[in-house]
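DM between two lab members

TW: hey, do you still have the histidine kinase entry open?
JB: yeah, one sec
JB: this one, 452 aa:
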Amino acid sequence: MKIRTKLMLSMSILIVFILFSLLAVTHIQFFIVRDLAYYKDKVAFKLLQEEFEQYYADHNDSWEGVHDEQFEHSRGFAEIAMVVGGKTLYQQGRLDIEIMQADGFHISLHEHDQKIGRLFVMNDSQYKTYEFKNMWYNILPNTLLVSLLLTAVAALGIIFLLSWRMTRPIRKIVAGIHGIRQGDANVIFPVRRKDEFGAISRALQEMNQSLASAEQSRKQLLSDVAHELKTPLMVIQGEMELAQERDVPLTPEKLSSLLDEVLRLSRLVHDVLDLSKLEAGGTELRPTAENIVEMVSVLIEKTQFLAEDKHIGLSMHASEDVIEVSVEKSRILHALYNILINAIHYTNEGGQVQLHVERMYSPDLQDEVVRIVIEDNGVGIPQEDLPHIFNRFYRADHSRSRPNGGTGLGLAIAQQNIVVHKGWIEVRSEAVKGTAFSVFLPIAKERVRENL
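TW: and the structure you got?
JB:
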């Protein structure tokens, strides 16, 4: 059912309810006014009651001839009816006995605690109230029809305008959703509204922006992967075609070069798959309690030869011998390795790369964490590049050759591996002076250590 139809039905029901409420109020008000009139002129009612009871006593406990009697205190009453044993023995006025029994004020007549009859009376005030009620009941059907007709016409116009105004943002939202379905990234929603429609619009617009960003990232990833794959494939294809054209076997040097390209392709595919799983949350961690100080020491031993080739000093400083973290060892080592390799690569010959491991308190987490700092005094990262260094295939050193520069996914993979462990990475850098990557990981809890 459309909103417009619902509004019209709701308005019609409201009108009927109001009219019937007026009817009920009028009906109740009649009896209230009738009873209030008794209390305002209670003496007159009492005198009339006593006069009828006296007549019964004066006639030897009989109502014989009462219908012809003229009662002195009846002059202030517009309607009087006396009923005894279901028979009307006395009546003054024009109203039917059924009406008097239904709407008249009831007075019981007694003789020596014995009920001898009932009076149904209306004084002038009560009778006027009855006439008003009766008039209202008579004109109510016509009033109801006219009111419904006039109100329906007026309501139809008002409802049409209101429903058009109320459904306009809905129509825009529906059109926007249809645009999203068609892949339109520039859909406009009524986000400036301050009601529920505005909240829905803002949520949908943010969702559309996220979808557009995700689609752009997907396209960019495909483009970057294709670009990265193209170079080694072209090298392999060129060497193979050249060997085939000349009909000469490949030399050991050529085979070694082709193997390097194949390994580079394999590394790229592995990194892309690994990063995709991390970003999609499809990686299931198997954490164990590990001594991060020992892990960093092992990492330094594995990369020491790279530092020695460039005459770079590689050292570690730890605040404690044992600081336990709950991690999947291979992933954290992979993350730290990628960062350390970058530090060594961007440090000039004779430079220094230092690693610091320390326990510290995190106000945000309100708990202890371990901080691993990998600091170099190399070329540094330009400030404009800092926000993008964890993006896929992004290189701060744009002159760095691709064959010697890795896949461009190292820092992105490092960041994702740290994030899935509930940690984070911070970077500070200054051109020419060097760069410091700080990796933060939660400290292993006592219950984790006990269970492992």
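TW: got it. The chain has three domains: 3-130, 196-280, 288-451. The CA atoms of residues 381 and 397 lie 8 Å apart.
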